[in-house]
Design goal:
Elements lengths: L1 E3 H7 L6 H10 L3 E8 L6 E12 L2 E10 L5 E6 L9 E5 L4 E2 L2 E2 L3 E3 L2 E3 L2 E2 L27 H5 L3 E7 L10 H12 L21 E3 L7 E8 L9 H9 L7 H13 L4 E4 L7 E5 L5 E3 L5 E3 L5 E4 L4 E4 L3 E2 L12 E7 L2 H4 L2 H4 L5 H8 L5 H17 L2 E2 L3 E4 L10 E4 H8 L5 H10 L3 E5 L2 E5 L10 H12 L25 H10 L3 E2 L5 E2 L1 H7 L18 E2 L4 H12 L6 E12 L4 E12 L16 H12 L9 E5 L5 E11 L2 E9 L1 H6 L6 E7 H5 L15 E10 L4 H12 L3 E10 L8 E10 L8 H19 L2 E2 L2
Parallel strand pairs: 13-16, 28-31
Antiparallel strand pairs: 1-12, 2-12, 3-4, 3-6, 4-5, 6-11, 7-8, 9-10, 14-22, 14-23, 14-24, 15-22, 16-19, 17-18, 19-20, 20-21, 25-27, 26-27, 29-30, 31-32, 32-36, 33-34, 34-35, 35-36, 37-39, 37-40, 38-39
Length: 792
């Protein structure tokens, strides 16, 4: 947003200098990005009137001008500007004046004396236009200092507004903001409705009310297209970085700068029937004002008549319906477009206009009719004409709603760390254009229609802090109690799991929670996958249903980089679509490939096997304090595991997860040559820990008895151990497997296992008879349960 400081001071009664103004703007979030001093060093430059302009006798492109400066005597000036003509009033640098780095002196140009220099806007540092002399109004008094006539010097201030402050893209709202900052009064031009003098009116239809809920139009007849905007208006445009074109265009641009509401003027003679606001048809073309032909898409909003698109809504008007020097009847339009309907459309066509800049950020929905009345009054004042009635088409249900927001004084103190007087808080809110209702514990504030960024209590607190002054909020060291998060004793902390896996030679990995849908299909884990609405890329299009696919990809990437022994783990979340909402499940997963131990001199190298990863898993289970029978293993698992080397870990009746070797089919698809051993467990059932209980230690000696039994190969040792504990009872202090044999002297399909039993009682020393009874119970139970016999 670029504007003239003098214009702002005309609207706001500021008692501060420029430095204070700029500092305050920066402190309140309206960052000053640039300053341009206009009209400095214009001493000796006056308004000159060219009385005559004759051709130079020795140069075709030069003219010998007689210029009046109001003294009664004309000055002879040799000028090469193409627009130098009799009757023109233009700036004249007299002898002795300085223009840029040039000091003007009397000189001869091709043998003709010249006593001064007629100047362009660029030569004076007022504009970038160097195409000819700066043309002044016909009523400019000759001889008056140019700085006095133009109201110079002045400063053009450019603000870098954040997207949430689109309200400050108009001088009226910017003036209110600055007035609130300095508790100053404003003098804003009154907008008085223009009474219609004829009954003709455009017919307007909204075919896309959600994109354009309000559209206002008015027919003005008999305008003078060749009228010129007054100097004050053209100067305000120029100092705001907008080029003056014609009175009809200048008025719409000026109203946009003043109110913040973009407008457009159509030549009424070029409109075929009604004005329709609709979505573009795919492939439809429109020739824009800059003469480029745009191919539109069906997500773009256009203004059309009964036969064609005539403007790209909120971006740029059409070339065929533009106002020209022959225009006599004008249709002025002023509309409210939803930001979502305009955002990004201009960039698709390589455009960025003042209108799209404003509509993308949001324009006050209450402005269209007010801006139309302001533009009508200015246009009739400058170019004449007769106004018809204002036509407003409204879809009120699609307009942005202003909802009141609660502000508590206690919350202000809590967030800002200071208490602000109630009267000042209320004054700040009212000065910012809010409707304020006082309540017992604070206020209920309804933001103005131009403020789209105020919806929660913290937004109001920010407004109070901005205007009160961030610099007035004292800096203090934070104080208070530090609340340490307490990890429940009955849960194994994830940090403990990390430490344990790290101690067992695993490295922690962090992979994306997003994966590609084809990867999950490859693992047969795509059931219930949640697709992302706006994925980062095609291979990160769904939420992972398992940690393992991404973790194994990371393992494969390491293997492809000359790492032959890789051990990775990750603790994270898996996601699956539930009946009502997505389900997030915390999990721990690991993957390992290569040798069982790192290369060393004292241990022979061997490939990792299933029992290595089972040992890692058991080290995690021991941290739960669970009994030996609480966790059980069931043979078999999902399809991504090897059918003969897969297991399901259970805790009671709950499935904790799976472990084993990856399926050979999957290894081939992942281009991995060696076996990969993996596990993935839900943290919930895995980390539930039994609290330790104090028990009396027996002071009596223990007895060890060993047995060797022959039983079927398919019987799992976990089932054998459970059977022994149940049969022997409380006298069985410990049981362990110390030998396994399969081979000669045993029937096919049978195995021999040797088990050690530690027997002990809390109240007495066990006798041989007690031990024999316990062993008899054990052997009998194994026989009944598994058909086991003692090995001879």
């Amino acid at each position: 947003m670029k504007f003239s400081e003098k214009w702002l001071r005309e609207l706001v009664d500021l008692k501060v200098d420029q430095e204070t103004l700029l500092k305050r703007l920066n402190l309140t979030g309206l960052e000053v990005e640039g300053l341009e001093n206009l009209g400095a060093g214009l001493d000796g430059i006056v308004v000159g009137e060219i009385v005559s302009a004759d051709p130079h006798p020795d140069a075709d492109k030069l003219r010998v001008c007689q210029v009046s400066v109001g003294t009664g005597e004309n000055l002879q000036i040799v000028c090469g500007a193409p627009n130098a003509r009799a009757g023109l009033k233009a700036p004249l640098a007299q002898v002795g004046a300085t223009v840029g780095t040039l000091t003007i002196t009397a000189a001869k140009l091709r043998g003709v004396e010249s006593h001064g220099m007629l100047c362009s806007a660029k030569e004076l540092g007022l504009d970038s236009d160097a195409s000819g002399l700066l043309e002044l109004a016909a009523d400019a008094p000759a001889g008056v200092a140019l700085s006095d006539y133009l109201g110079l010097p002045d400063t053009a201030i450019e603000l870098g507004l954040t997207p949430n402050r689109s309200d400050c893209l108009g001088m009226r709202k910017l003036a209110r903001e600055v007035a609130a900052q300095f508790a100053a009064s404003t003098t804003l031009p009154e907008i008085v409705p223009v009474a219609p003098t004829h009954d003709a009116a455009p017919t307007i239809r909204l075919d896309a009310p959600g994109d354009c809920p309000r559209y206002c139009g008015r027919l003005i007849r008999g305008v003078s297209a060749d009228a010129k905007a007054p100097l004050w208006l053209r100067e305000r445009l120029r100092r705001s970085g907008v080029r003056s074109i014609s009175a009809l265009v200048d008025v719409t641009n000026y109203v946009m700068l003043e109110t913040g509401q973009p407008m457009h003027a159509f030549d009424a003679a070029t409109i075929d029937g009604s004005i329709v606001v609709r979505r573009a048809r795919a492939g439809e073309t429109l020739k824009l004002l800059d003469e480029r032909v745009a191919t539109l898409t069906d997500d773009m909003l256009v203004i059309a008549d009964d036969s064609k698109a005539i403007a790209m809504a909120g971006v740029m008007g059409g070339f065929d319906t533009r106002v020209t020097s022959s225009t006599t009847d004008v249709i002025l339009e002023s509309a409210h477009f939803a930001p979502a309907a305009i955002a990004g459309r201009a960039r698709k066509l390589g455009l960025h206009t003042d209108a799209s800049h404003r509509f993308e950020r949001g324009v006050d929905p209450e402005l269209p009719c007010l801006a139309l009345e302001r533009a009508t009054a200015l246009l009739i004042e400058i170019a004449g004409g007769r106004a018809g009635p204002v036509v407003e088409v409204l879809a009120a249900e699609h307009l942005p709603q202003r909802n009141p927001v609660k502000l508590r004084r206690a919350r202000i103190k809590r967030v800002l760390g200071i208490a602000i007087d109630d009267a000042k808080v209320e004054t700040i809110l009212r000065n910012l254009g809010m409707q304020v209702e006082t309540q017992t514990d604070g206020w209920m504030a309804t933001p103005p229609s131009s403020r789209f960024d105020i919806s929660i209590e913290e937004d109001l607190i920010e407004e109070v802090a901005r205007i009160h002054g961030y610099e007035q909020i004292p800096t203090r060291d934070p104080a208070g109690e530090i609340h340490v998060a307490v990890v429940p004793e009955d849960v194994v902390a994830t940090r403990t799991l990390r430490d344990q896996l790290t101690a067992r030679d695993y490295n922690e990995a962090i992979s994306y929670a997003f994966v590609g849908a084809p990867l999950l299909e490859q693992w047969e884990l795509d059931d219930g996958a949640i697709a992302l609405t706006n994925p980062l890329s095609a291979d990160l299009g769904v939420m992972r249903t398992s940690i393992l696919p991404g973790l194994v990809n990371a393992l494969a990437a390491n293997c492809n980089r000359q790492q032959d022994r890789v051990r990775l783990f990750e603790i994270g979340r898996a996601y699956r679509q539930g009946d009502a909402a997505p389900i997030e499940t915390p999990r721990v997963a690991a993957a390992a490939i290569g040798s069982a131990h790192a290369e060393q001199w004292c241990v022979a190298s061997r490939a990792m096997d299933l029992f290595d990863i089972k040992g890692d898993i058991e080290s995690l289970l021991q941290m739960t304090g669970a009994s030996a029978t609480e966790f059980t293993t069931v043979a078999g698992g999902p399809n991504w595991l090897h059918p003969g080397r897969a297991a399901t870990l259970m805790r009671g009746d709950v499935v904790v997860g799976y472990y084993g070797s990856l399926h050979p089919r999957l290894l081939k698809q992942l281009d991995l040559d060696d076996d990969v051993y993996v596990f993935e467990f839900d943290l919930g059932p895995l980390t539930r820990r039994h609290l330790p209980e104090a028990r009396t230690l027996s002071k009596f000696p223990s007895v060890r008895r060993d047995i060797a039994v022959v039983l079927p190969e398919e019987v799992a040792y976990a089932d054998v151990e459970a059977c022994l504990r149940d049969a022997v009872g409380e006298n069985l202090a410990q049981v362990f497997l110390f030998d396994r044999y399969v081979g000669a002297n045993l029937p096919s399909g049978m195995k021999s296992i040797a088990i050690g039993l530690i027997l002990q009682d809390l109240s007495r020393t066990l006798t041989d008879q007690d031990s024999d009874r316990c062993m008899g119970q054990a052997v009998a139970a194994l026989g009944r349960g598994f058909g086991a016999t003692l090995r001879g």
